[in-house]
Specification:
By secondary structure, the protein is mainly beta. The protein is 14% helix and 48% strand. It has two helices and eight strands; from the N terminus they run H-E-E-E-E-E-E-H-E-E. The chain has a four-stranded mixed beta sheet with strand order 5-2-1-7. Strands 4-3-6-8 form a four-stranded mixed beta sheet. The longest helix is centred in the first third of the chain and has 14 residues, at 3-16. The termini are far apart.
Length: 145
């Protein structure tokens, strides 16, 4: 058997061999995900749209977040408490809030300053804050904790 033929045979054998199964990726940790989805100018100021997904393993019967809105220069424009209400387990909800006297075009950052309320079996604000993840769909507006 020539060296070239032996190499070709090895490659062909490897290509024809069954692929061994790999471990399935780890399941995403249980948590609460908030996405800043849109900012839309309204008659009174700025309408802020969030997507909220509850993967905590239990229903959130009431939730409220303290949100800081930063202007283009980095200063705080407004500090507000937003009531997200109930969030069923495994469900994604769309929530909209009108923030008066704030221009959407001037916002540069939205910060989850605190979890004011997070009620449900085995839940409290600290648990929800520790398991909170954030994402912004907006290129010009940072969103996080």
């Amino acid at each position: 058997m020539t060296m070239r033929f032996a190499s070709a045979l090895i490659v062909a054998t490897l290509l024809a061999s069954p692929v061994l199964a790999q471990d399935a990726p780890a399941t995403a940790p249980a948590g609460l995900a908030l996405e800043l989805n849109a900012l839309t100018s309204s008659e009174t100021g700025c309408r802020v749209t969030f997507l909220a997904t509850n993967s905590l393993g239990t229903e959130v019967t009431r939730s409220s977040f303290e949100i800081a809105l930063f202007g283009a220069g980095g200063g705080i424009e407004r500090l507000v408490s937003l009531e997200f209400k109930a969030m069923p387990e495994g469900k994604t909800r769309v929530l909209q809030f009108d923030i008066g006297e704030v221009g959407c075009d001037t916002l540069s950052r939205v910060l989850i300053n605190d979890v004011v309320a997070c009620d449900g079996e085995g839940l409290d604000p600290k648990v929800c804050f520790d398991r909170l993840t954030t994402l912004s769909r907006l290129d010009k507006v940072e969103f996080g904790v």
